[in-house]
């Protein structure tokens, strides 16, 4: 059975949202994640770049900015 990715993990590498290496806006967890797409959270610049490149290569680039993840229901 496939393991389902949790909503509060990086969609590229699976790093949990509360991990010390997760990048937060202005370095503060209270400010939310620094990177995301409409598909979920991204933990770092490296994962954000990898996600972007994968989507372009697959012919599915983002066409508009993703909404603020703090305004979404991640449950």
In short:
With 75 residues, this protein is an alpha+beta fold.
Write the layout of secondary structure elements.
Layout lengths: L34 E3 L2 E3 L2 H13 L18
Largest sheet: 2 strands, antiparallel
Number of domains: 1
The largest sheet has its strands arranged as 1-2
How would you state the average pLDDT, rounded? 87
Q: What is the number of helical segments per DSSP (H or I, 4+ residues)?
A: 1
Our Rg estimate from Cα atoms comes to: 12 Å
Features:
75 residues, alpha+beta, two-stranded antiparallel sheet, 2 strands, 8% strand, globular
Characterise the protein shown here.
A two-stranded antiparallel ribbon has the order 1-2. It has 75 residues and is of the alpha+beta class. The protein has one domain. The longest helix has 13 residues, at 45-57. Helix content is 17%, strand content 8%.
